[in-house]
């Protein structure tokens, strides 16, 4: 159940021979492979977000489905997508978590011109890292993603972990009216200054979940992708014992989630190994318990009458590492990043409350180092030399959580509130709790102008975004 439309690599790959993976970002002007690119069309349509007898909901979608087709390719191969815009407004496609050349990153008026209605754009790059990624617009993101424009991008390892099934769940929530339409109010001031646009209907792969059939003795690799504008999920698998094997597509030491709950903020991904241990006919609920007094059952895992095997196999869970540049912490340059704004937060740094109020009158609600960026952002707040190591000492001086996403790079999360992290995990989107301090380290090895922003999309639109420039000139 809850299967996404699927396009395998034979349909998507322009060449049958895999390119060797390396830490060098593939150039966009490499000679084109023989096969033509695959078309990915953004347009309006309808989707059965709610079960019968409810009707269809008008949505925006890729290739006629929500989510868009699951793209599966193998690490090191070339992805070629011809994006068609059949929407009534401009759009782009951002390949979230993928280390692309800057021109392929999909940020309008920064890395490319917006794709106008009726126009096309060719995205083409080598996929360096294996893992769980996704794609979505970076133009008018709050509304376009909130109406259903997104899809999974799975890059398969050359030597993947052995499982019985590899399943992707794109989690999302929708703000629906009683008639089943998507409610208006995108970009509302209330959503912007609080926790973002929260929905009232949760889906897995574009459908309200009910039951999913499993077999006792089965091992599943479950890839979780949070496509919601603002909702944070905290999944409790009950009697099951999920093991985290990757975060944001990057391998991590296999471990049980903290307190047994898998927390996944907007735009983040978590890969789990789940061993099914129930008896035939047993129902094991998966609950979302993140928000106090808003707990609910997301889906029931129902064991079929016939087990797959008598016991769960003891196969290795470790994933092979990706070719990421290791930060040199001793040689790193440190930068202070302060997030301010929103309701109930601390005053702005520098200009103080009066300056913040003046900017808020202009529609600016969130700030990075005292600056709110709304509309096209071109001037960087940091300029880094290619090949150098940097540590961002980030502080959330607000009363709201923020999933902070950095384009074009992965980084190690090295400390929280001054304490070293247990796994020094690689991520591209890190969740910051209210009043929390988080330190991340990375090598600025991908030249260009890169977005750095909160992925609660209403926070991004109201100012919590900026640009980090990586230059080849010292």
Short description:
The protein has 474 residues and is mostly beta strands. The chain has five helices and 32 strands.
In words, what does this structure look like?
With 474 residues, this protein is mainly β. The protein has three domains: 6-156, Immunoglobulin-like (Sandwich); 165-303, Immunoglobulin-like (Sandwich); 329-471, Immunoglobulin-like. It has five helices and 32 strands. It has helices spanning 9-12, 141-146, 189-193, 352-360, 457-461; strands at 6-7, 38-47, 57-62, 70-74, 78-85, 94-96, 120-126, 131-136, 151-156, 165-174, 201-204, 211-214, 219-226, 233-236, 243-247, 250-255, 261-264, 269-275, 283-288, 296-303, 333-341, 366-368, 382-385, 389-396, 402-406, 411-416, 419-420, 426-427, 429-432, 437-443, 448-454, 465-471. Strands 21, 22, 24, 26, 27, 28 and 30 form a seven-stranded mixed beta sheet that branches. Strands 11-10-13-18-15-16 form a six-stranded mixed beta sheet, with no helix packed on it. The chain has a five-stranded mixed beta sheet with strand order 1-4-9-8-6. β19 and β20 (296-303) form a beta hairpin.
